[in-house]
Every structure is written in C-alpha cells, then in structure tokens.
Amino acid sequence: MTNTLPKNFLWGGAIAANQAEGAYLADGKGLDIASYCADGLRHGFELKPTEGKHYPYQEAIDFYHRYQEDLKLMQEMGFNVFRTSIAWARIFPLGDELEPNEAGLKFYDDLFDEMIARGMQPLITLSHYETPLHLVEKYGSWRSRELIGFFVRYCEVVFERYKHKVKLWMTFNEINNMRRIPGGAGGILLHEGESFWQTIYQASHHMFVASSLAMKRCHEIIPDAKIGSMFSLSNVYPATCKPDDVMSTVGVRRESLLFVDVMVRGKYPAYANRMFESKGVRLEILPGDEEIISAYTSDYIAFSYYRSTTHEHGLAQNADTGGETGKDNPYLETTPWGWQIDPVGLRYTLNELYDRYQVPLFIVENGLGTFDKVEEDGSIHDPYRISYLRDHLEQMKEAVKDGVDLMGYTYWGPMDIVSAGTAEMEKRYGFVYVDKDNEGNGTLKRIKKDSFDWYKKVIASNGEDLK
C-alpha cells in the first residue's frame, strides 16, 4: 500500500476575517462581536468601546489592504486551497438589512479573484466568530428565530455573487463551541438569572435550521458546490481505565458530537433526550424544523484538531478555543499556552469520525501556537513548528491508509494573526512572521520562518517528503 495521498489532495492554510482583515469600519462595514473585544473571544466582548482600551481585532494584521502580498507568499508555498471567512457585517453592516453593501461584496470579489489567479481554491466559512453587533443588541443574537431569515438572506446574496468563484463552503465555524464559548460561536451574552443550557441549546437549534436552509440554497444556486459544517474536535481520553472515567468521557465527547450528529445525520441522537433532561433543557422545535434538518445535511465534515486532554469522572471539564481542557496527560509534551501535543490523537480522531459518519473529512485547522524569536540577521528558526507539523502529517497519512476519506489539510494559520482565544499576537502560528506585538506596535512587515520552506517542500511532494 502506497503512502501517497490522492493527487487532488488540497493543501493550504486557514485564517478568519476577524483575526486577520482589520479595517473594521472600512468601506461601510458594520460592527461585529470582534470589534470591541480586547482579551479574546472566549472572554466575551463589549457592546460599546471603553476609552483608551486596545482592541486588537480592529486592525489585526491588515489583511484587508495586504492580501495580495500575503497570497503571493501562499502561492510561493504551493497552496492549492486557502481558507478564510466572509465578514457578515461587510455584506450586511447591521445584519438585518434588505440590501447588501456593494463595497463589501466587491472586496471579496477582488480577494477571490486574487486567490484563483494564484492557483488557490477559495474555501469559505460563512460565519466565523463575527456575528453583527446589531443582531446581538436588537435580537439577542441566535436566541431569536429571526436570525434564521437574516442568515439565509446573507447566504443567498453571497452564493449568487460568488457562484462562479467559490465551490467549497462551510456554514458556522466550530458550531459546537456554542457550549464552550457561546459569545464567540454565536454572539450570545448571558443575561442575569438566565439558564445557560436552555439558552445555548435553543440558540444552537436555530443555527441548525439556518445551516440546513443555507445548504439547501447553496445546492440550488451552485449545483456543483460542496457545503459542510465545521466543528472543534480536539479529542478527550479517559484519565484511567476505571469504568466510571471511561463512561464519563463518553458523555463529554457526546456533547461535541451531538452537533455533528444533527448536522451530518440529520436528527438529534437518542442520547440527546437524557442530556437535555439532565441540564433542564426543553427545546422549542417548530413544525417543519426537523424535516428541514433531516433533508439538508452536510456534504463533508470540516474540523479543527489541536490537541487532546484527559477526563476524570467527577472533575469539572473546562474548555477553550483549542478544545476540552481536563487533566494533563503525562505522556505528552505541552506548549507554553498549556495545549498538549498529540499527533496520534489526530489519527484517532480521523478514524473516529469516519467510522461514525462515512462522509468525507477535511482538516481545516491544525497548528502550533508558540513564541518565535527574530534573530539579529532577521531569520526565524522554528524547528518546533516543523516537528509538530511533521508528526501530525505522518499520522494524517496513517489515517488515510486506515481508509479515511480525507479531502485536504489547511494549516492554521499560515501567517501570524490575532489569537481568537486570547487576542494575542505573540501566540504565533505562522510560517510567515508578522511584525506586531500584543499592544499593537510594529511595522506589520512579513518575514518568512524556516517552516515556510519546509511546508513548501511538503506540498511539492504531496506529503511524501517530511524530512
């Protein structure tokens, strides 16, 4: 059996509009939840700015004005796919208008044209942690069923506009993070005395209906498109072989897989009844909702994988943008941000998902965020990033040999961007260094790291040369 990945395997990188574009009010763009977020989306966001406070996402790395330079670097590495998102508030500044903002539409026309001219398929997320702020203030965000119609209108506009340019779509980024980071994933600010779980799962149900209707319209408008759902699926193991730890870990994993079950299998799983009962959740499901969810399911599963953790029965299981956070695994190394490095866990997760769902998979986020040092000669040596990536790609290839149907791999993120979880610049992922610090100081100059040439070699060999 050969190690070779399919000849049409998609190699590239991934970013998000809110973490890269900046230009937060340019050309008629409206405010979104990242506009007044100072400490990362897992820590919440503000509805109004605080005088003198630094909001990193407002400028980010200025991809809005520098995308040609950045895409030229991605082309040099050999990318044949590039994942980013459309900022909903660039198209509908408030989110609920009847007519879109032409300047916002034109920006993405130009961006997608540049990608295609440089040999990259656009892989586009429709909503990536950037719910328009007006929808939060006026409607309570996804608490309200009215957002279903607003979202579908937005999707119809961009499907029509870009139907000849974009064939790969995703609806909501890491939608299962509604249960971990509801502010980022769904623009939910909890009210005093409000039931957390009731609010989160009701809002998620509205998002399920909206996603299915978007999938319906995508296939009607762009018949040759593929549209999937995107999930945060870094994994969790039992802390021991004690049966209580094993069974409790099944429950933790199901809390994420419930979202995949609904959006891929088209129905709430049987275990949802007991889960909802234990949390005091009573969903309002209107006539026709279940039929919509059943009829329009995901063409593929896109997911992020960064790490694994372990779970012990009876201990609280926390989470952040990288996934579950339980007890440290003594067999794994840990990054400066506390994320444990588990390449074999990627193979385990790929097999878990393909065994369960039997639809194509797409690794759309995987990467190492850590400190980088610029040497006196301007070079940046990052053997730790090369090691992380090499080990994960080796396990990815093993999963393909196991029989997993894998569409591609987009590394997060190919250039340094503002962290989603902490709003830091110094938590660096990129093959390309961006000269900016946590306080917003710097020239924004782009500098290649050693990993740049290494990943270029990997892509040129279709994953064969991992030395």
Short characterization:
The chain is α/β, with parallel strands linked by helices and 467 residues long.
What are the SSEs and their pairings?
Elements (H helix, E strand, L loop, with lengths): L9 E5 L2 H4 L42 H15 L3 E5 L2 H4 L10 H16 L3 E7 L5 H7 L6 H17 L5 E5 L9 H5 L9 H26 L4 E7 L2 E4 L4 H23 L5 H9 L9 H7 L5 E4 L3 E4 L6 E3 L2 E3 L7 E2 L5 E2 L1 H15 L3 E5 L17 H19 L4 E7 L19 E3 L11 E3 L1 H11 L7
Parallel strand pairs: 1-2, 1-14, 2-3, 3-4, 4-5, 5-7, 6-8, 7-13, 13-14
Antiparallel strand pairs: 9-10, 11-12, 15-16
Description:
With 467 residues, the chain is of the alpha/beta class. The model has no long low-confidence stretch (mean pLDDT 96). The protein is globular and about 60 Å long. It contains 14 helices and 16 strands. It has a single domain, classed as Glycosidases (TIM Barrel). It starts with 9 loop residues before the first strand and ends in a 7-residue tail after the last helix. An eight-stranded parallel barrel has the order 1-2-3-4-5-7-13-14, surrounded by four helices. The protein has a two-stranded parallel ribbon with strand order 6-8. β11 and β12 form a beta hairpin.
Summary keywords:
467 residues; alpha/beta; TIM Barrel; 8-stranded parallel beta barrel; 14 helices; 38% helix
